């Protein structure tokens, strides 16, 4: 991308604009998740068929994410993000309109493809803004995604409680979120490719550096997916708690992650990516140990909270490191995103399979072992600790970023 100089005021506005885009992206996820039961009933699919259909978002994302870099090259970073976030918010309406399993699978494939491309575009811009500010912001950006998820989930829970039709709910949510996303994109950086810059390939294997960084992200997302989907079941089945207390454990886990992400940038700036992830890995391992030895719900809940605290900033730092790991940031970010999406898909089913073959306790021993990978391999994120030079020379005028 061209090295256009923006003044610090424009870069700061762009940071808040991208944070708003992250929140919009998360709100779509939360809006969809709360209406899955309605969608299942409307499409008349069984639990097994729903599980099959829910694999298609990750498949669509994995196929489409490498295209995001080429789209940004063709249309520029601002226009690309504007288009891709709009496609994602509009795709929210598709699953609820699906009358049967094949239509639902197709809808969720498109849903995941648009989610993945928007994800790559907004993370790439986040890394660029972080470079220009000279300090960490990726953790708080992902924290805003979590905030958006909570808001979308709350609205969806209210809609479900009122018995509203998910088609109407998602049409209204899609319209509001599309407008908010378009508005926020007016202030993001309008980065354009240089004349001699080659367009990225339509499809390409991620660079080796992205594979190593993605492996660290895999460990964190596996623990996140396992805890998010199975923490309530663990408390109910292993410790025989009430449904309300089991649900509170999941809520506590998500809140811990959101708070840690929002506060994580200061820690990263002070201690660096490697030491932050390594310390987080220690907390996640400690949390995993508390989970597997717990004989009281409070101990297990503390374990899940520590796990959330330990893994919260890992994925944002993986994206930041990928964006600085080579000559093609979008391709590296897409590679890391593909690996983490895959981990998020694999984790819940892997936990269930292991639990069926052995026990849920054994499943969380695996989670604890993978959390140890954060301690062992945190060094591959050193690319995220490279110097981030702040603007020190006079800036040149640029066009109004709201254009």
Descriptive overview:
It is a single chain. Helices cover 77% and strands 0% of the residues. By secondary structure, the chain is mostly helical. Helix 4 packs antiparallel against helix 15 and helix 9 runs antiparallel to helix 12. It is globular and about 65 Å long. The C terminus is likely disordered.
What is the fold's blueprint, element by element?
Blueprint: H1 8-33, H2 36-43, H3 47-53, H4 56-64, H5 67-75, H6 77-91, H7 93-97, H8 101-133, H9 138-161, H10 166-185, H11 208-238, H12 243-293, H13 297-311, H14 314-323, H15 329-357, H16 360-377
Helix pairs in contact: 1-8, 1-9, 1-10, 3-8, 4-8, 4-15, 5-6, 5-8, 6-8, 6-10, 8-15, 9-12, 9-14, 11-12, 11-13, 11-14, 11-15, 11-16, 12-13, 12-16, 14-15, 15-16
């Amino acid at each position: 991308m061209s090295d256009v100089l923006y003044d610090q005021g424009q870069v700061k506005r762009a940071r808040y604009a991208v944070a708003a885009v992250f929140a919009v992206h998360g709100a779509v996820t939360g809006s969809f998740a709360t209406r899955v039961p309605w969608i299942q009933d409307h499409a008349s699919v069984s639990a097994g068929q729903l599980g099959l259909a829910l694999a298609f978002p990750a498949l669509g994302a994995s196929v489409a994410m490498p295209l995001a870099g080429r789209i940004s090259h063709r249309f520029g970073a601002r226009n690309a993000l504007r288009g891709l976030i709009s496609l994602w918010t509009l795709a929210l309406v598709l699953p609820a309109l699906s009358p049967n399993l094949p239509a639902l699978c197709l809808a969720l494939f498109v849903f995941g493809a648009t989610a993945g491309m928007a994800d790559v575009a907004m993370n790439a811009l986040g890394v660029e803004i972080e470079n220009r500010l000279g300090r960490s912001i990726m953790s708080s950006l992902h924290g805003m995604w979590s905030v958006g998820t909570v808001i979308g989930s709350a609205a969806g829970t209210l809609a479900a409680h009122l018995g509203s039709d998910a088609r109407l709910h998602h049409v209204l949510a899609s319209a509001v979120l599309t407008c908010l996303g378009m508005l926020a994109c007016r202030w993001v950086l309008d980065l354009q490719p240089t004349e001699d810059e080659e367009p990225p390939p339509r499809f390409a294997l991620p660079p080796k550096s992205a594979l190593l960084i993605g492996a660290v992200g895999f460990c964190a997302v596996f623990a996140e997916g396992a805890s998010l989907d199975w923490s309530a079941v663990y408390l109910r089945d292993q410790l025989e708690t009430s449904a309300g207390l089991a649900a509170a454990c999941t809520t506590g886990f998500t809140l811990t992650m959101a708070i840690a992400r929002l506060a994580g940038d200061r820690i990263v700036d002070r201690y660096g990516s490697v030491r932050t992830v390594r310390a987080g890995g220690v907390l996640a391992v400690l949390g995993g140990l508390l989970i597997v030895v717990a004989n009281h719900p409070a101990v297990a809940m503390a374990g899940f909270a520590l796990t959330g605290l330990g893994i919260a900033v890992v994925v944002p730092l993986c994206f930041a490191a990928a964006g600085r790991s080579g000559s093609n940031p979008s391709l590296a970010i897409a590679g890391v995103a593909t690996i983490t999406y895959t981990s998020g898909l694999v984790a819940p089913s892997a936990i269930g399979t292991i639990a069926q073959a052995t026990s849920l306790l054994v499943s969380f021993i695996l989670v604890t072992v993978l959390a140890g990978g954060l301690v062992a391999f945190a060094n591959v994120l050193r690319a995220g600790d490279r110097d981030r030079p702040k603007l020190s020379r006079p800036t040149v005028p640029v066009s109004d970023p709201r254009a």
